[in-house]
Amino acid sequence: MAGKWLEMLTQITPPVERVAILFNPATAPYASLMLHAIEEVASSFAVAVQRAPVNSDGELETMMAELARQERGGVLVLPSVFMITHREAIIALAARHHLPAVYSFAFFAEAGGLMSYGVDLDDLERRAADYVDRILKGAKPGDLPVQMPIKFYQVISLKTAKALDITIAPPLVATADGVIE
Questions:
Q1: Spatial CA neighbour of 112 closest among 156, 65, 61
Q2: What is the mean pLDDT of residues 77-81?
């Protein structure tokens, strides 16, 4: 997913050259793994990556204002409880500072964020229900295979793109699962 997130930010005009990875260390203990993956693929997209740990609304405001002072900057918001809880503030700050951002859940784009790409939560819930059914029918949880997500969902908000005065590449829009106009 790291490559897809970065690719999305480079398929806008003007393209992003610097990407700040927004995360909360307390609610995203897996962030170091994701950051490593993002940093590994960044050079193939010709973008510089900056780690942007935040722990409060004040730090969000400071970080976004700092990013806005840099040319051709963008934001990648890693998934965590903190980011979900503060999504309205994050989306509003990105809009106020004219920063293109990509999120990991569709509900960010549906709430006014620019783009999202992540697991299809409805599919995960359906598959979890199947596991519950198997367990209720006598299957031992330890005998059930661990499954990875298999469906992903991409949403693009052309309304937000227009407000940010950016253009999203037509092929990216064409492959989106959802487009907000």
A1: 156
A2: 95
Question: Two tokens at 26?
Answer: 């307390």
Domain count for the chain, please give it. 1
The whole-angstrom separation of Cα 120 and Cα 58 is 31
Q: What is the pLDDT averaged over residues 20-37? A: 94
pLDDT at position 25, please? Answer: 95
Gap between the Cα atoms of 65 and 9, Å rounded: 19
The model's pTM is 0.89
Buried/exposed 84-116: b ≥16 CB within 10 Å, e otherwise = bebbeebbebbbebebbbbbbbbebbebbbbbb
CA atoms within 13 A on the CB side of 118: 18
Look at residue 79 and tell me whether its pLDDT is greater than 90.
yes
Q: Please indicate, yes or no, if residue 145 is contained in any of the structural domains.
A: no
Strands 115-119 and 152-157: antiparallel
Domain hosting residue 156, numbered range: 2-120+152-180
Which residue bears the tokens 């994050």? Answer: 90
The residue among 50, 64, 47 whose CA lies nearest residue 7 is: 47
